[in-house]
Amino acid sequence: MFICTFKDYVATRWYRAPELCGSFFSKYTPAIDIWSIGCIFAEMLTGKPLFPGKNVVQQLDLMTDLLGTPSSESIARIRNEKARRYMNNMAKKPRVPFSQKFPNADPLALRLLERLLAFDPRNRCSAEEALADPYFFSLTNMEDEPSTQPIPKLEFEFERRNLTKDSIRELIYREILEYHPQMLQEYLDGVDRISFMYPRERVCAHIEEDDEENSDLEKHAASAIARTKQFRSEMDPEAVSILHVIKYSRLRILTDL
């Protein structure tokens, strides 16, 4: 797997993984996203942020107040000398049982939360492992959610191109045409290479023609949304919400940039 070098400002402080707060390691791994998901999940269970630190030092203190002092092995792996010294000099703290911190939470939810909020990134579960957790037993079907290889960097070459205003205007117009097949075909055939300065009138002329088709699509979408709402109403709202967050993280992890 391709792993990127990271900076410590890529995440909002309250949801930063320990390795970001202390510049512990030099690589950005999927475990950083998993930690953030754990913080979000804990906030959903209590209604308030789990680690609302005012600065990086307090952030680490809040983490260790709950998770206890990291093992000597984990501290030894910290590449930043100042951070390593700070962790070594920190007063030894015992781990607070999650059942004590979250007394009203589902035990299965706490079991998952402990896997998401492991101080050492090597001990955190992956997105696939989280989706397979018993907490999501009634919500997921792992056979229908296969994993794939990371998206190759070549797929993002378009982000490295130098574009002029006219080029950007044409790309936007080309994207609009994706929703108007007839106009798109004319464009590709070179029949109607109109100016990209004012494409709005040209596009809007076709909207009325698509109204009937769009109406059927809207009815189908409304029906699907109604079924989804009925299904979700029967489920634990925290489970449904955090499931979607993990799935989004899983998609994001599939990119290797």
UniProtKB/TrEMBL annotation:
Residues 1-136 form the Protein kinase domain. Keywords: ATP-binding, Nucleotide-binding. InterPro entries: Kinase-like_dom_sf (IPR011009), MAPK (IPR050117), Prot_kinase_dom (IPR000719). It holds the Pfam family Pkinase. GO terms for molecular function: ATP binding; protein kinase activity. It comes from the Eukaryota. PANTHER family: MITOGEN-ACTIVATED PROTEIN KINASE. This is Protein kinase domain-containing protein. It comes from Rhododendron griersonianum.
